[in-house]
Design a protein that fits this description.
By secondary structure, the chain is of the alpha+beta class. It has 2 domains: 243 residues, NADH Oxidase, CATH 3.40.109; 190 residues, NADH Oxidase, CATH 3.40.109. Helix content is 29%, strand content 21%. The chain has 16 helices and 19 strands. The strands form 4 sheets. A 7-stranded antiparallel beta sheet has the order 2-7-6-5-8-10-9, sandwiched between helices. Strands 14-15-13-12-16-18-17 form a 7-stranded antiparallel beta sheet, with helices on both faces. A 3-stranded antiparallel beta sheet has the order 4-3-19, with no helix packed on it. Helix 1 packs antiparallel against helix 8, helix 6 crosses helix 7 and helix 9 packs across helix 15. The structure holds flavin mononucleotide (FMN). The site of flavin mononucleotide has 20 residues, from strand 4, helix 5 and strand 17.
Length: 540
C-alpha cells in the first residue's frame, strides 16, 4: 500500500519534470475568461475590517530572524492586524497600459496566489474567540465560527500558553489554470513562502510560530471547518499546515491537539459560502491524486533539534525589518554587471541556515533536508563557478558519494559549509537549466535547491509536500536578504530538473532539485507605475 503511494508520488514528480525537449503538461495558453479570482471571500460570514499599521514595528534588520530583541506584544486587534499586514497582506499595486494588479508580501508563482489563510483567535476587543478567514484584498477577517469560551480555555491549557493558531490551505486550480500538472509543486512552494512570512512577521511582535507537526491533515480540515464547507468542485481548499503562534520561552509546546478538542471543532456550526472563483475549472487529475497520496496522517510530535549557531552580523543592512518585508519584489531583469560583495554573499547564505532561536526555520516544520547548488557569477573576490552550500552536515558524505567524482569540494571559509565544486563561467549553464531565463544568468548568483528526496518520501510520503515547503521558506529568506543588501531576488519554478541533476552528476533520485532562485542588481521596468497597497481602502 505505502510502496504504491510512494511510487505514484514519484511518478507525479517524474511526470512534471520539464525537459529540454518537452515541458510538463499544461494548457499551453491563457484562458483569460476563466482566470480564477486571486482573492477568496466567504459570503455570509460577518466581516471584521482590520486597522492598517500607522507605524511599523521598530525591529532592525537582524531582528527579522533573531528573537532576542523583539519585545512580546499582547494579542489585540491591532497586533493581529499588523502581523497579517506584514505577512500575507498586499504590498503594492502595479499598473501598465490600462491593466492593474496587486502584489503581496508573500510571493507566488505567476502571482496567482493559491494560498489561503485561516486563524483561530482568542477573544479580543469585544469579539469572542472564533475561526476566521483572512481576506488580504480588504484586509478583513471573515468570522466563520464562534468558539465557546470553555473550549478556548482548554486550548490555552493544552498549550500551556496564550496565543492563537494560523493555518494555510491551497487552491490548486489557481495555479493549474496556467501551469497545468506542475502546479501542485508551485502551490507547495507558495505554502512554504507563506509559512516563512508568518514566522518572520510574528517575530516582529515577539511571537514564535510552531508547526503542529503531529496533526493529521484530516484533523486540520476538521478544525478549520473544511469538512462542513460545500466547496465548488475543483475550487476546494486543501489543507497545508496549522501552527500555534505564541510567546512561550519553553520548547515544550505540544505539536498536536487532543482528539476531544478536534471533535468539538468538527461539531461547531461554521458559516459562510466560499465564492466562485472561475466560470469553469479544468480537472488536472494527477494533482488531486498526488494530493490524496501525500496527505499527512497523525504522527508522533517532533521537536526538531536545531543548532545553536550565531547569526553572522558582519554585513548589516540600514533598512528596518518591516521595510525589508514591505519592499520585497521579484526582479524581472538584472544588470549583468551587478555584483555582490563577498561578505554580503556569505551573510545571505548564512541566513538560510536553520538555527534555534531564529525565524523562520525554528517553526520546526522538518529536519533540514535541503542544500544549495550555487551558480556564482559575480561575487567580488570569489572565483565564478559552481559551489555547494550544505545546510546540514549529516548529508555531506552521501551527497559527495552521489555527485561527480571530479568536484573539488574545496572549503571556501573556515567553519562555514560552503564548498567550491568547480571554477568557470557558468552564466550560460545557469540560464539553460532555468528554462533559458536570463535572470538566472545575468544576476550575481543563482541556485538550485537540492533536497534529500527518495529516502524521505519512502519513509513518509506526505513529506513530499514538506520538502517543497522547506524550499519555499529558503526562497523567502533569500528574497528578504537580497532586499536587505540592496539587491533583488526571484523565485524560479521553471527549470529543467534532470539537466540540473546532470550537473551534479546524480544518476538517480536520492537527491532532487526542487526550486531555483536568483539574486542580482535589478533593472526596473519604467513602464510600470506603482500605487500603495491599500490605496483602495478609505478611512482606515
Ligand atoms: C514558487 C515560485 C516560482 C516562481 N517562478 C518564477 C519563474 O520561473 N520565473 C520568473 O520570472 N518568476 C518566477 N516567480 C516570481 C513570481 O512571478 C512573482 O513572485 C509574482 O509575479 C509576484 O510578484 P512579487 O514577487 O514581486 O510579489 C516565482 C515565484 C514563486 C513564489
Amino acid at each position: 500500500m505505502k510502496d504504491q503511494r510512494v511510487k505514484e508520488i514519484i511518478d507525479y514528480h517524474e511526470a512534471t519534470k520539464h525537459h529540454y525537449d518537452r515541458y510538463a503538461r499544461s494548457p499551453g495558453y491563457m484562458d483569460w475568461k476563466n482566470q480564477p479570482h486571486p482573492f477568496r471571500s466567504y459570503a455570509g460570514a460577518p466581516t471584521l475590517p482590520l486597522p492598517l499599521l500607522k507605524k511599523d514595528p521598530p525591529a532592525a534588520y537582524q531582528d527579522l530572524y533573531d528573537r532576542k530583541n523583539n519585545a512580546r506584544q499582547a494579542v489585540t486587534v491591532e497586533t493581529i492586524a499588523g502581523f497579517l499586514e506584514l505577512s500575507l497582506g498586499l504590498s503594492a499595486w502595479k499598473a501598465v497600459s490600462g491593466s492593474q494588479w496587486s502584489l503581496r508580501i508573500n510571493p507566488s508563482s505567476g502571482n496567482l496566489h493559491p494560498t489561503e489563510a485561516h486563524l483561530i483567535l482568542p477573544p479580543f476587543n469585544s469579539n469572542p474567540s472564533g475561526v476566521y478567514h483572512y481576506n488580504a484584498l480588504g484586509h478583513v477577517l471573515e468570522r466563520r465560527a464562534d468558539i465557546p469560551a470553555e473550549l478556548w480555555q482548554r486550548i490555552v491549557s493544552h498549550f500551556g500558553a496564550e496565543g492563537f493558531l494560523i493555518g494555510s490551505s491551497s487552491i490548486f486550480w489557481r495555479e493549474s489554470w496556467k501551469y497545468g500538472e506542475r502546479a501542485f509543486r508551485y502551490c507547495n512552494h507558495d505554502a512554504g513562502h507563506a509559512l516563512a512570512c508568518v514566522s518572520l512577521s510574528a517575530n516582529l511582535y515577539g511571537w514564535k510560530v510552531t508547526c503542529l507537526n503531529g496533526l493529521s491533515d484530516a484533523a486540520i480540515d476538521a478544525v478549520l471547518g473544511f469538512d462542513q464547507i460545500r466547496f465548488r468542485k475543483l475550487e476546494e481548499e486543501h489543507t497545508d499546515f496549522l501552527c500555534f503562534v505564541h510567546s512561550a520561552a519553553s520548547n515544550r509546546i505540544p505539536r498536536s491537539l487532543p482528539d476531544q478538542i478536534i471533535s468539538e471543532f468538527a461539531n461547531l456550526p461554521f458559516i459562510g459560502e466560499p465564492d466562485k472563483l472561475s466560470q469553469t475549472c479544468v480537472d488536472w487529475e494527477i494533482i488531486y491524486q498526488t494530493a490524496r497520496l501525500s496527505k499527512k496522517p497523525a504522527t508522533e510530535e517532533i521537536a526538531v533539534k536545531l543548532e545553536n549557531r550565531k547569526l553572522s552580523v558582519s554585513a548589516p543592512s540600514p533598512l528596518s525589518a518591516a521595510d525589508i518585508i514591505r519592499n520585497r519584489r521579484s526582479a524581472t531583469a538584472f544588470d549583468r554587471h551587478g555584483s555582490v560583495s563577498r561578505d554580503r554573499f556569505l551573510n545571505m547564505l548564512d541566513k538560510t541556515l536553520p538555527r534555534s532561536g531564529c525565524a523562520p526555520f525554528d517553526a520546526e516544520l522538518i529536519e533540514p533536508a535541503t542544500h544549495l547548488l550555487l551558480f556564482v557569477h559575480n561575487v567580488v573576490d570569489s572565483a565564478p563557478g559552481l559551489y555547494f552550500f550544505l545546510r546540514t552536515e549529516k548529508d555531506f558524505d552521501e551527497i559527495k558519494r552521489f555527485s561527480r567524482s571530479d568536484f573539488l569540494w574545496k572549503p571556501v571559509e573556515t567553519e562555514f559549509p560552503l564548498y567550491l565544486l568547480s571554477e568557470g563561467n557558468c552564466r550560460q549553464q545557469a540560464m539553460m537549466v532555468s528554462c533559458h531565463q536570463e535572470i538566472a544568468g545575468f544576476g550575481a548568483f543563482s541556485l538550485g535547491m537540492i533536497a534529500k528526496f527518495k529516502d524521505i518520501i519512502t519513509a513518509e510520503p506526505y513529506r513530499y509536500r514538506h520538502l517543497f515547503w522547506e524550499t519555499g521558506m529558503i526562497g523567502q529568506v533569500l528574497y528578504l536578504e537580497a532586499e536587505a543588501h540592496g539587491l533583488r531576488g526571484t523565485g524560479i519554478g521553471c527549470f529543467f530538473d534532470d539537466a540540473v541533476h546532470e550537473i551534479m552528476g546524480f544518476n538517480d533520485n536520492h537527491y532532487q532539485s526542487l526550486y531555483h532562485f536568483t539574486v542580482g542588481k535589478p533593472i526596473e521596468d519604467p513602464r510600470l507605475t506603482t500605487r500603495p497597497p491599500y490605496h483602495h481602502l478609505k478611512n482606515r
